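New to this. Comment on this protein:
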Amino acid sequence: MQLIHFERHHEPLAPKHHFFLRLSRNFGFAVMMIAGTAAIGFGGFYYFCGLSPSISILNSVKIISGMDPVANLEGFLPHLFEVSFHLFSSLIIIVATSLFLVPVLHRILHRFHLDETGASDAQRSRS
């Protein structure tokens, strides 16, 4: 099974149920990425910073959502982890958003390249 499989430019537009299946699959992967990032943040705040489990998950989720953390951390290692987690979670949010939007953008571009009869530019040039 391929993670990302889209129809080629010479193939017809995928049916709506394929599109929604593709969209929901990519949404699931994006949610799993964000949940995994929250788990990494929870473990790091709990282990490296010595915070309680509830404050650790709260810090992790607030950083992922772009807010400031709840706890004020002291020491080099907690600060290093917090900065690293900020950068990592920002990258994950960009990747997860891109993964979710790829099917939508592909469908828009593929539809844009089809004419009214449903034939693509490549099919018209062959005939």
Remarks:
- The chain is about 70% helix and 0% strand.
- The chain has a mean pLDDT of 83.
